[in-house]
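$ ./design --mode recover --in tokens.txt
reading tokens...
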């Protein structure tokens, strides 16, 4: 599935890049990148007269799963528009998604910064019907030189690769840090907002209505529940919230009181901001998957097979998550409370028998009960009620339903 999605993404990108020569794309984009016009406020038009112009460009969400939180770039406009360029900190090798994903989980330098002509970069997002906003930054000449020097430094071969972290070191936080450094920390000092949304809430918002092919649309939401550990259940500061492009755009607007210029408005339906969590459907699926554990014991036939069907899927998932917790430096992968619920040692349910199997099952029931209590009182912070069902049902069947002979 991942390879098919990646291949589709690469094919789409190649189709875009080969659809028209660069000059033709630039001509078509003339209406997208006007420096002045009747829709541009006078104070913004004056900023575009002070070359070079440092421009924050943000893009809305796309249909693919890695496009669901938007994108961002810093662009520089010069007197000669042929020299206008954008610096993109979100480039990855999507031709090899498995290697890229493994590099991300291992904290390797799997992403890098690149440089492209403004027209070429914006045409990709326009072609894919993704909204585009531009904000010229009212920087001093010295601040502009500092920003350009940093951007040029970062695209050098020894400097361009970095270990991507979705929350604390991504394409948006790198742009945020450059602006913040140039302005003497003004973004970092902005007043807080408190709507009680956590990192997990913010991440989940991007996946409402995502296209998943033949899979239910709530699958990515469940993945955020399972794959993101306890550190994402903290409410971020406003500074931290700027890991998402829309909040950095908002912060720049608040800081300088300059409305973003809409270079392109999405023609398709607006992105969803709410929707079903998927937890109810997932709980129903778990009830179906675990039914063989108790049903075969009631009927007295295929009891070990029924237990394997109920236990093996969560056992494999828990083993993978536990292995990743050991090898990944990412805090939301390393500290994952699901590893206590989908416990790798539950393999003992499949290899033990008789009284030893029942004793292990009853010990695990005590452990699951403790996890439930700690979750209810807030010591454990992840959404664990739905995942708890998966081991609870087959373990309870082993603990309390005796084996029957047909």
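writing sequence...
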């Amino acid at each position: 599935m991942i390879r098919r999605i990646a291949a589709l993404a690469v094919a789409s990108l190649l189709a875009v890049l080969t659809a028209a020569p660069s000059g033709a794309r630039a001509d078509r984009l003339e209406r997208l990148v006007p420096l002045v016009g009747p829709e541009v406020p006078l104070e913004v038009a004056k900023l575009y007269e002070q070359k070079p112009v440092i421009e924050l460009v943000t893009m809305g969400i796309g249909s693919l799963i890695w496009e669901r939180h938007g994108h961002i770039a810093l662009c520089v406009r010069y007197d000669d528009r042929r020299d206008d360029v954008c610096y993109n900190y979100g480039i990855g090798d999507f031709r090899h998604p498995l290697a890229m994903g493994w590099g991300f989980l291992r904290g390797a330098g799997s992403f890098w910064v690149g440089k492209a002509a403004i027209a070429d970069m914006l045409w990709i997002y326009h072609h894919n019907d993704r909204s585009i906003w531009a904000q010229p930054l009212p920087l001093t000449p010295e601040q502009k030189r500092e920003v350009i020097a940093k951007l040029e430094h970062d695209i050098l071969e020894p400097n361009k690769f970095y270990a991507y972290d979705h929350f604390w070191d991504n394409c948006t936080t790198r742009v945020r840090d450059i602006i913040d450094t140039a302005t003497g920390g003004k973004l970092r000092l902005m007043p807080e907002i408190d709507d009680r949304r956590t990192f997990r809430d913010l991440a989940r918002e991007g996946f409402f209505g995502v296209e998943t092919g033949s899979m239910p649309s709530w699958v990515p939401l469940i993945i955020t529940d399972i794959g993101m550990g306890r550190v994402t259940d903290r409410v971020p500061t406003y500074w931290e919230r700027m890991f998402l492009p829309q909040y950095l755009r908002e912060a720049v607007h608040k800081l300088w009181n300059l409305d973003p210029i809409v270079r392109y408005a999405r023609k398709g339906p607006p992105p969803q901001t709410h929707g079903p969590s998927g937890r109810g459907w997932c709980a129903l699926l778990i009830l179906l998957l675990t039914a063989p554990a108790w049903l075969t014991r009631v009927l007295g036939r295929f009891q070990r097979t029924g237990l394997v069907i109920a236990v093996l899927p969560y056992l494999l998932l828990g083993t993978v998550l536990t292995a990743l917790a050991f090898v990944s430096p990412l805090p939301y992968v390393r500290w994952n409370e699901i590893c206590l619920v989908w416990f790798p040692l539950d393999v003992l349910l499949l290899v033990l028998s008789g009284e030893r199997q029942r004793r292990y099952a009853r010990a695990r029931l005590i452990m699951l009960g403790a996890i439930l209590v700690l979750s209810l009182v807030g010591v454990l912070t992840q959404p664990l009620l739905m995942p708890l069902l998966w081991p609870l049902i087959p373990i309870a069947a082993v603990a309390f339903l005796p084996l029957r002979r047909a």
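exit 0
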